[in-house]
Each structure stands twice: as structure tokens, then as C-alpha cells.
Amino acid sequence: xxxxxxxxxxxEAGIAVLGAAGLAAxxxxxxxxxxxYLSLALNIVMYVVLCTAWTLFSGPTHYISLATAxxxxxxxxxxxxxxxxxxxxxxxxxxxxxxxxxxxxxxIATLRLSGVYFVIFTLGLAELVRQVxxxxxxxxxxxxxxxxxxxxxxxxxxxxxxxxAAIVYVTGWLINRSRLGFAMRIIGNxxxxxxxxxxxxxxAKVALFMISGGFIGVVGAFLAPRFAYVEPPSAFNPMISFxxxxxALLGGTGRLWAPLLGVIPFTILFDQVSAHFPNHTSxxxxxxxxxxxxxxxxxxxxxxxxxxxxxxxxxxxxAEDGAxxxxxxx
Length: 330
Hints:
Structural class: mainly alpha
Distance between the termini: 55 Å
CATH class of the largest domain: Mainly Alpha
Order of helices and strands: HHHHHEHHHHEHHHHH
Strand content: under 5%
CATH architecture of the largest domain: Orthogonal Bundle
Number of helices: 14
Number of domains: 2
Radius of gyration: 22 Å
Largest sheet: 2 strands, antiparallel
Shape: globular
Helix content: over 70%
């Protein structure tokens, strides 16, 4: 069996070098700006991690999950509840485990569903968790919010998210080259065929859903110090789920890095809309979702692939016509 690094193609090595260079360049941003552009970049990196983690599961399986807000909120509350008693790294680890466990429980109960039923259930999950947290805080504490006081500023959170982005990409690359990744691609193409091939489809889906949910929970944990005051509407905001789906679908789910193509333009657009038309953000998200579904059903990367395929067919047709013309002339 060849070592893993020996099987890396030249193209993959090039992408890795380019990604590492981009990550290093992005890490220098706080040295030049700690205001608006850092805040915008932090939002971009946050959604890059969220969308990539979402794509780990939803990309190969084609299951549209709207449970992002639930996992994100669990991670946020893991830090908010324990910040006065436990060290921050341990709370982040707890957020990862708690979100993974929730994803596992949800997966065991629901991943036999597919299509619109799975979408509806995951959407309701975030709202259910939000209501449970609100009820618990209302009845057992003195309020519905928690203060999160730390020494972290936006620069620290930005660097932590960049590091997490690197970990998520490496994890995704390893999964794609593993038996689990191969199994998930078969499941995404035809789940019935996967079962007949001897793949434990339920186990594979739950395992990948837990990994995806855990990373999303870590993002929520990292963002807790930025909120400073954590409450259910902000931690379990359903808009996070919808934005992640729109950005991921806009970029495309065919490549691990494809969500970048949706995250960057949409985050900038959403920032401008929120600043100039704060009462119309939901309308913009709705229009964007419909536009992506109808105009770019396979995302930007899918559109590019289609154009390349069409170009190759066009060249083949021209070559065949040219060959036929020469034969006719002779």
C-alpha cells in the first residue's frame, strides 16, 4: 500500500500550495486593518468554514440540511455556560462533542428520511432546540441571556477561524480519499445500489453528519466571545442555516473548495444590503435562494463544468465536420 502523500496528484499538490499561500496571506490582514475590512473578512471566513463543513455531508449525499443553526447554537452556548468555570479550549472541545452528539442523535432518527422530509425536520430541529433553551433559561435562571467576557478580540477570533478552516479542508481531503468518502459518493449516486454493495448506509451517513455538525459547533464556540451577550435568538438564528445553504449551492458542492465561490460574493452583498436596507434582508435572501435554484442549480462550479463539457463537444463536432469535408472533397 502506497503512503498517503505518495498518492497525491500534481494538481492536488498545486491546490494545496495555493491554499496554504492564500491562508498565510489572509492571516496578515489584521496587521493592516482592524476595522471594517477585518470584520468583513471574519464573516467571510466564518461562512467558509460553515459552508465547507456543511458540504462535507450534504455535498456527496445531496441531503439539504437546515440544522446548521442548531449545531452553531450548541457550540455558542457551550462557551457561554462555562466561560466562568472552565478554560476556553476545553469549552470549544465540549462544543464539538455536544454538537456531534446532537448530530448523531438526529442522524439516527432522521437520516432514513430523504428529500423534503429531511429538510423540514432539520429546519424544525433548530427551532425546537432554541425553544428548549429559552424555556430552560426562563425557568431555571434569572434571564434568557448570558454574558461572555474574554480577552479575545476580532483579530484572535479571525485567526482561530482561519486555523479551523485549514483543519476542515484537510479533514475533507482525507475523508474524500477514505473508504467513508467513497461510500458516501456511492450513497449520493444511488443509495439502493450502495446497500446492495454491502455499505452500511445509515452508519456512514451518521458518522459524516456528526463530523460536519461538530465543526459547525466549533464555529459557534469561537464566535461566542464576539457576541459578548449570548441569547437564543442570536445563537440559534435560522438565517444562518439558510445563508449557509444559499452560499454552498451558489458555489457548488462538487469540489471541497467550491463554497468559496459562493461565500465571498454573497457575504459582501449581504453586508451591503444589511447596511443600506436592514428591513429587506430576508427578502434578498429569498430572492437569492430562488435565483440560485433556477439559474445555477449546480452552482458556479457546475456551470463552469457544463461550459467546458459543451466546449469539448463543440470541438469534437467541428473536428468531425472537418474530417467529413475532407473526405467529401477527395
